[in-house]
Amino acid sequence: MLGRDQVQRLLEAALRRSPAEQTEIVLMASDSALTRFANSEIHQNVYESNAEVRVRAVVGKRTGVAVSNRLEPDAIARAVETATALARLQPEDPTFPGLPGPQAIEPVQAYSETTATYSPEQRARAVKVVCDLASEQGLVASGAFSTGPSELAVANSLGLFAYDVMTRAHFTTVIMGEDSSGYAERAAVDVTAIDVEALAREAVDKAVRSRHPVEAPPGEYRVVLQPYAVEEMLSYLAYMGLGALAVQEGRSFLNGRFGQQLVAPSVNLWDDGRDPRGLPMAFDFEGMPKQRVVFFEHGVARGVVYDRRTAAREGRESTGHALPAPNPLGPLPTNLFLGPGDASDEDLLAGIDRGIWITRFWYVNVVHPTRTILTGMTRDGTFLIERGELARPIRNLRFTTSVLDALASVERIGREPLLLGGGLGGSLVPALRVGRFTFTGVTEF
Amino acid sequence: MRDYTQRVIDLAQGLGASYADVRLETKRVQIVSVKNGVVDALADEESSGFGVRVLVDGAWGFASSARIEFPELERITRLAVEIARASRLARRGPVQLGPPVRSVGTYRTPVVRDPFSVSLEEKLDLLFRADAAMRAVRGIGVAESSIECQRVQKTFANSEGAYVEQELIETGGGLEALAVGEHEVQKRSYPNSFGRHQGTAGYEFVEAMDLAGNAARIAEEAVQLLSARQCPSEVTTLILDPTQVALQVHESCGHAIELDRVLGMEASYAGTSFLTLDKRGTFRYGSEVVTIVADATVPGGLGTFGYDDEGVPAQRTVIVEHGIFRNYLTSRETAALLGETSNGTMRADGWNRIPLIRMTNINLEPGPWRFEDLIADTDRGVYMQTNRSWSIDDRRLNFQFGTEIAWEIRGGKLGAMLKNPTYTGITPLFWNSCDAVCREWAVWGTPNCGKGQPSQVAHVGHGAAAARFRNVRIGVY
């Protein structure tokens, strides 16, 4: 890692040499390591040290972007010159609001020295715990365990400078038997917060219980979604319409529906990059401080996230959700929170005469964005619920269902949210019991 | 470069590595995109670095860095060895690579016009003309057009004597028109979805697309889709256009034949495969008209190269022969487990990633039919064009695809336009229902193939032509 002082010196020196009217430089650096295992042994084990500068040069209302992973002053200067030359080539974009001035950014605690210095041997020993527990049950373990620090800095020629150093630890495992499988996942800033044995036992237990699955016919069911499935569903909902650009282009499911009760009153969904229970980051890729944004308040549609460009179109402030430039997707949520309820695992099952319990989804894709229809498969632990209990494992099913319809039919919400996510941010979500969920096919395992 | 590569290999062997390879890469990507009359992205990205892969006592280690300088080469090589030693803590047996690979050679993508030598003014002029033509159609809310160029220069060397230098050039482009209705949006893309069609070629690849000449047509189709009939739910005859056939091959064949998946090495993420080892040579994957090959030598495909990232020369391998499943895509390690040698499919998406088994160009061989004859030969059915959504289970059996547009077929003629078309099936049943493949064949690029942890995105190709499938369930909602 470079450290705040070195990054600031490097970027400010490059900004002073820029020929553009305004210049922004985003630096992203990481020392990331990942240990991957399959067939109960480590088969891939990798480390990467990288740092890149992403330069956005502004000439009038024109912008150009150049990216380089060379950090020598002359290399950064070349990237600045390239970005400036690109900017000069294009016509004015009247909607470009210019770069922001200095921002007051409250730091967040997103760094753990233990995670930053976690060794290959420590990761291998943790992986061995999972492999051994699987072997004890005659099962096969696979998965990935990643750890490492990263730095993010944004500096611009108007005097803005924002810097943060973060760590992430992320562990996923799939435990497989002859005809069964189980899954577990954990994410944390501090690697010691991940209880590897508990993670392994959760996945092993599912793999044991899902042996000898039977076929359940497709159709509409009440379902219990584990946090893994909830997180995937909400991530797609965010992609389909919780960013301002989707609304401004008329392709969001929220168009014309703000203030309306769209989902169950028990559903509260928001984004908060500063919440220490998540995987926090204090500012976005324009250096704007992260704001808390509410999407659903007691089921009523409230808002979406903005970057500076989409905010300027509506005469409002950025909420701090810009992604790295150039960004055709527009702003997107990165730190989702779904408000927990009061239901235990038993409560989620209670009262379901016939339903399906789902660990996670696989290969989800959008079928119809404005109707929020997704399709995908269940995976790694799918069970039939009968008379309020997990009755038997079933073969995996294809679902084709509307996320909004599912959220409108939420009956109970779990009381223990789980922190998930191996990407930019993280999501803290509980399990859900959903009244309407449509399955359209079945597979052979 | 030989100074660098030899230093790494000598050091790795001195530290106890029984095998070592090093790959130095520089990748440059230029992205030009226009959206609703303004430049949406104009970016030039360059990334360079090196990766060292070692085997120590039969266990793998890999480390990589962006700083190509001697002290960093030494640090990274030592770290790769340290990581390999840690891997031994959870190893059940030593990795075997089979016979040594000692390739020495060079390869460069043949191009007519180097895409980086074409001015940005020329690229922007083309995109603005296409953009204007799309937006001239009433009802279009979002018009997007883009060109992307990529150059990868890489040097590979291993401790067995291989030394390979390659320069791979890709060029691509495409259009998307989004029509916005009161409660619905409809999109049309050209020539393919995923934002663009791409190949290993020069700028002539974009010129041949005639983006400006097709812009108004797809915009009009997008608007017409808003008021088109919903695709019915039924079991019927389905004809897929070549781009959707390409994706069908990708998802239901290309991934299923990756031997690392078959052997469980991707179980935690991408999944496994229904094409288990016992099926090789006997399993009827498809009908007699279905022959599929993996061909890294076909001109222009995104999976076309000189050598893979283990130094193995590009090859052509028969995968499905008249419906019978014959071969997998292999690496040195996985092929050795079968007592065979690699068929050259290991590719990494950059200096900072290990190579994985990736599709090259997985091609459905052309058939005898002319497309117009195939439509004329179909009494009742649906013709679907251009992928919109895709999903398949983790063993590559149960799939569901959506396309942007469809037309009903009645009495051997294309009839009414249909919106929101989808179809679903089980892989071998579906391919066994294929009774016709057309002769109008081209290699389509899939520039967004995800696999691996940390994630890697591969650029792969699929030769494909329109094809007909019987008794397919369509209109799944």
Question: What features would you describe in this structure?
Answer:
The complex is a heterodimer of chains A (445) and B (477). By secondary structure, chain A is α+β, with helices and mostly antiparallel strands. Chain A folds into two domains: 4-197, PmbA/TldD superfamily (PmbA/TldD fold); 213-445, no CATH class. Chain A has ten helices and 19 strands. Chain A has helices at residues 4-16, 73-88, 113-116, 120-136, 196-209, 227-241, 244-248, 308-313, 345-349, 403-408; strands at residues 22-38, 41-59, 62-68, 140-156, 161-176, 181-188, 219-225, 269-271, 293-297, 300-301, 336-338, 354-368, 373-386, 389-393, 397-402, 410-413, 418-420, 427-429, 432-442. In chain A, helix 1 packs across helix 2 (73-88) and helix 4 packs parallel to helix 5 (196-209). In chain B, the strands form five sheets. In chain B, strands 1, 2, 3, 4, 5, 6, 7 and 8 form an eight-stranded mixed sheet that branches. In chain B, strands 10-17-18-20-24 form a five-stranded mixed β-barrel. Chain B is 21% helix and 40% strand. With 477 residues, chain B is an alpha+beta fold. The chains are: A alpha+beta (445), B alpha+beta (477). Chains A and B meet through strand 1, strand 2, strand 3, helix 2 and helix 4 of A and strand 1, strand 2, strand 3, helix 2 and helix 3 of B.
Shape descriptor of chain A: globular
**Total of domains of chain A:** 2
Strand content of chain B: 35-45%
Q: What Rg of chain B do the Cα atoms give?
A: 23 Å
Helix content of chain A: 10-25%
The main pleated sheet of chain B reads as: 8 strands, mixed
Q: Descriptors for this entry?
A:
heterodimer, A: 445 residues, alpha+beta, PmbA/TldD fold, six-stranded antiparallel β-sheet, five-stranded mixed β-barrel, globular, B: 477 residues, 2 domains, five-stranded mixed beta barrel
Topology record:
The complex is a heterodimer of chains A (445) and B (477).
Chain A: H1 4-16, E1 22-38, E2 41-59, E3 62-68, H2 73-88, H3 113-116, H4 120-136, E4 140-156, E5 161-176, E6 181-188, H5 196-209, E7 219-225, H6 227-241, H7 244-248, E8 269-271, E9 293-297, E10 300-301, H8 308-313, E11 336-338, H9 345-349, E12 354-368, E13 373-386, E14 389-393, E15 397-402, H10 403-408, E16 410-413, E17 418-420, E18 427-429, E19 432-442
Chain B: H1 2-14, E1 19-35, E2 38-56, E3 59-65, H2 70-87, E4 104-108, H3 120-135, E5 140-158, E6 163-180, E7 185-190, E8 197-199, H4 204-207, H5 211-226, E9 229-230, E10 234-240, H6 242-254, H7 259-262, E11 292-295, E12 316-321, E13 324-325, H8 332-337, E14 346-347, E15 356-357, E16 362-364, H9 371-376, E17 380-392, E18 398-410, E19 413-419, E20 422-426, H10 427-432, E21 434-437, E22 442-451, E23 456-464, E24 467-474
